[in-house]
Design goal:
Elements: H1 2-15, H2 23-30, H3 34-42, H4 49-62, H5 68-74, E1 80-85, H6 91-106, E2 110-115, H7 120-132, E3 137-140, H8 148-156, E4 161-164, E5 173-177, H9 180-192, E6 199-204, H10 209-225, E7 234-236, H11 241-252, E8 260-263, H12 266-279, E9 288-292, E10 306-309, H13 312-327, E11 337-340, E12 343-345
Parallel strand pairs: 1-2, 1-3, 3-4, 4-5, 5-11, 6-7, 6-8, 8-9, 9-10
Antiparallel strand pairs: 10-12
Helix pairs in contact: 2-3, 2-4, 6-13, 9-10, 11-12
């Protein structure tokens, strides 16, 4: 019975086929040429306000919708780009995605977003799917143990690629932030301004290029200050907040616990603060605290958190601008690497005055 009912509905739908509205229909109603309609819809040439109004009214009256797929095929373009991030929920990546989307929308492109979840398999699958959709370009923040050959294969197929945030390992355009020098400066501030000598680092996964660079800055600062490296004070692992909380709890329970803690990301920072809360410790009374990557609305935290604030939105926007220049062919030189400067804001958590 259900099959017969479905068949009858299908037949009725075919008999009530809705007529297709073409650009010629819009032009006829508006009393203009089809090329004028095209210029109004695509914004390819200035049109008088009176003419534009007639065309727009005709579009609304007919319900005309541009056939984007056919237009894209004629131009050998899909007017879409792929964006693969490791964790779209993290504040920095969310801001980068907004920067990418703003520039893409201004250029008339659609962004197809994929979340790799720090999983090489998911990343490889996302690359495959986006390549099958013939995106005009690709932006990717590689996972810790990324299959770089998969990214290289996309590049070899002629698809422009820009690495975003996590740099190195692939011959492609790259846009990120300075990591080593700001972390070095942050640690030296704790040493020279506040007298700390026993400083822990909640690093996370050092297989991630940004985390590795921030760890390097931490080690450079200790060496410059003449402080011996204590491996028990360097917390690595997955970098997830819960994992960091467990490891930091053990460190803070030591009889000779660190007097200061630096986190390499907002995720590890959350783990550090959770560990402190569980032990009834506060900052800066029990230990000074600072982090790379500021929390959203950081000025609302009490005490205020000292942080390296990277221009995440600008990283996303710059990455998209660079990709657009490759797609349009306006940039044909060898791959470029752009590093933007972050800003350090010293607040009460490290012992600075409000």
């Amino acid at each position: 019975m259900q099959l017969r009912t479905g068949s009858r509905i299908g037949s009725d739908a075919r008999r009530r086929r809705v007529p297709v509205v073409t650009i010629s229909d819009v032009a006829r109603i508006a009393g203009v040429s089809t090329s004028t309609v095209s210029h109004v819809i695509n914004g390819t040439r200035p049109v008088r306000d009176e003419t534009r109004t007639r065309v727009e009214e005709a579009v609304r009256a007919t319900g005309y919708r541009r056939d984007s797929l056919a237009r894209a095929l004629r131009r050998s373009r899909t007017d879409s780009v792929g964006l693969i991030l490791t964790e779209v929920g993290e504040p920095a990546f969310a801001a980068m995605a907004r920067g990418v989307e703003r520039e893409a929308m201004s250029a008339g492109l659609t962004v197809l977003l994929a979340n790799s979840g720090e999983d090489p398999e998911l990343e490889a699958r996302a690359l495959e799917v986006l390549a099958e959709r013939r995106v005009d370009g690709l932006l990717i923040a590689p996972v810790a143990r990324s299959r770089r050959e998969a990214i290289t294969a996309v590049i070899d197929q002629g698809t422009p690629v820009v690495l975003i945030d996590r740099l190195g390992g692939v011959k492609a355009d790259q846009v990120g932030v300075e990591n080593t020098a700001p972390m070095r400066e942050l640690v030296l501030h704790l040493v020279e301004r506040h007298g700390h000598r026993r400083i822990a680092l909640a690093a996370g996964d050092t297989g991630v290029s940004t985390i590795s660079e921030r760890r390097r800055g931490y080690l450079q600062a200790l060496d410059e200050a003449g402080i011996d490296v204590d491996d028990t004070l360097m917390i690595t692992g997955s970098g997830r907040a819960e994992d960091t909380r467990e490891r930091m709890t053990s460190v803070l329970r030591q009889p000779h616990r660190p007097t200061a803690v630096v986190a390499a990301s907002t995720e590890t920072a959350a783990g550090v603060l959770a560990a402190a809360k569980g032990l009834g410790l506060t900052t800066p009374e029990d230990f000074a605290f600072a982090t790379f990557d500021a929390f959203p609305h950081a000025d609302l935290f009490r005490p205020g958190i000292t942080a390296v604030d990277q221009p995440a939105h600008e990283i996303g926007a710059t990455s998209m601008q660079l990709l657009l220049s490759r797609i349009d062919g306006t940039l044909t030189a060898r791959p470029r690497t752009i590093r933007l400067e972050p800003e350090i804001t010293y607040r009460e958590s490290c012992g600075c005055p409000a």
